Amino acid sequence: MRKIETLIFIIFFTFFYSCNKTDNLIDSSFQYADVQLRYMLNHIAEYKDDLSNNRILPRSLDVNGNIYMVSPSDWCSGFFPGVLWYMYEYSHDNFWKVKAKEYAEKLAGQRFNKGTHDLGFMIYCSYGNGYRLSPSEEYKTVLLDAAESLSFRYDSIIGCIKSWDLKDSPWQYPVIIDNMMNLELLFEASKLSGNKKYREIAISHADKTMENHFRPDYSSYHVVDYDTITGAAISKNTHQGYSDESVWARGQAWGLYGYTMCYRETGDIRYLKFAEKIADFILNQKNMPDDLIPYWDLLAPNIPNEPRDVSAAAIIASALYELSEYSQEYSARYKNVADTIIKNLSNNYRPKTGTMYGFLLHSSTGHWPRKSEVNVPIIYAEYYYLEALLRRKALG
Ligand code: GLY
Known about the structure:
With 396 residues, this protein is mainly alpha-helical. It has helices at residues 3-46, 79-91, 94-104, 119-133, 137-151, 183-193, 197-212, 249-266, 269-283, 310-326, 331-348, 379-395; strands spanning 57-61, 67-70, 154-155, 160-161, 174-176, 223-226, 233-237, 364-367, 372-376. Glycine is lined by residues 178, 240, 250, 366.
């Protein structure tokens, strides 16, 4: 073969070989998930401990390695049904659809819960995926009721949805970066109902958050407090990070995912550019480990001896796959980074089959300052991991 032909052969071979490797990774990860999640379902079916408290959905493992179950009103309740819907989306196996419906419908009553900004996580991950994969009037009604309940928490002077109603709170009107994720439910509700109100609330919240939550380098604060009379931002703090000025890993991930989603829903180029800036900040962190699974806070004091947060990595990977579809300049970079993350998660952060109650990934960190859910499997890591795998598969 001439030199040029050899070169073309090598390029094509490398391309097909790497596509094939990614397909294998996705398939083998779902095969693993199939085994682990059936194991988890068996455990949950036998779980009788706290039924009086309605703890019927898996969330994480506690310090003793026991499963931590939560009620439908917990902010994490929607992720397990969402995981089951993703299993159905991948496999088209009716077994997963039946289970997904069973667990999603345990959240039906939450549609009227006006006490949490996390209703978007709860209802969109469960009913939103359910409606997407198996549309019905019943699911649509739940989504619309939930959007109405969530919009009850919006204040037009501040222009944001309130995050927490804490007793003895140091804040008047706390808004956390995580809340960007709840906007997806509102965008969906406007599409389903034709009522622009939900979408307008989502856009206002995203714009205010852009204005007040971000530092000049595009890292984000966790909590911004607003004055309820003037609507002005009055303090910028953390709750789950190491310090007010530190870089709480999952918060950066929520922002990246949130603005990517806002671009999808609005086509507003400001959101795309903003998501690119956040990605740039995250990917250029000097404290980011080589395997791209971040420490729980990228300015935590004892790096490299700090717990990782696998959930942040999974959210970042899922967001980057989506962003790679929109970004003109950085598409290949985002896809490569996300590929590295899912490869490392699948190869190095998996419990052995038949252990850890069937969770799919270890080493997430929920709330380090409270020493709660540190270095354990947490259900939202699994949700965004499976979502990332599906997004990768769709990219081809
Ligand atoms: N929304 C709470 C968290 O990310 O831990």
